[in-house]
Target: ABC transporter ATP-binding protein/permease
Amino acid sequence: QGTIRFEDVRFGYDPDRQILKGISFEVPAGRSIAIVGPSGAGKSTISRLLFRFYDVGSGRITIDGQDISRVTQKSVRSVIGIVPQDTVLFNDTIAYNIRYGRIDASEAEVQRAADLAQIGDFIKSLPHGFQSMVGERGLKLSGGEKQRVAVARTILKAPPILVLDEATSALDTHTEKDIQSALDLVSKNRTTLTIAHRLSTVISADEIIVLKAGVIVERGSHADLLGQN
Ligand code: ADP
Ligand code: ADP
Model:
């Protein structure tokens, strides 16, 4: 479960400016793909279309053969977990933020996910620096800490499809390694789409796509691409 296909996808936020100019690729269930390329190439736009923030201009996106524009946004999102570049958190406890997306999870499950993402000591606190009227501590989380909350949420949700959008970019190298290993744990046997600036961060992907100005200019394994450069 979790095969993604993009079939000649074209899209622009404005009708007179195409951002994606005919993108096709497939990620078989359980495999991983990385999309690399310069800033502005359209990488995040691919993840936004997959998550149905927008509908494609032409072409189609399918998950397990189902055209995602023909099912509800909610059902598309239920099979996808995103660790975005900028995680926006609710002004509620970190535990609440982690549980969001799997509200049936037990406290022990939330704690375990938080521990794996190394945010386990903070889960009773609030993320934006304000203390609550019932006395919950207010911490002002850094970008990297917010990302760890997103990682914990994804660990807990354990969806068939994972989208990692520069998932470890806001972290220092030491934390990045730890978080990467937590992410490897969740991405094992799941379809994974990783968005990155640099080839060096996506060595383990089964296939790498190089996107420039909305066009796929190269594709292959990490070794293939290095051989050509
Ligand atoms: P990348 O992830 O490769 O850096 P994006 O997919 O975020 O690129 O953006 C691709 C292009 O689309 C950029 O030129 C960006 O300015 C433009 N863009 C992104 N979001 C919007 C938006 N909401 N409205 C209009 N243009 C946008
Ligand atoms: P629902 O519709 O079931 O209430 P959402 O569709 O809002 O849930 O969100 C489902 C998942 O998508 C959550 O796990 C959340 O992390 C993620 N998500 C929601 N909004 C965004 C966003 N703007 N950027 C990235 N991820 C988001």
About this structure: Helices lie at 43-50, 73-78, 94-99, 107-116, 143-157, 173-187, 222-228.
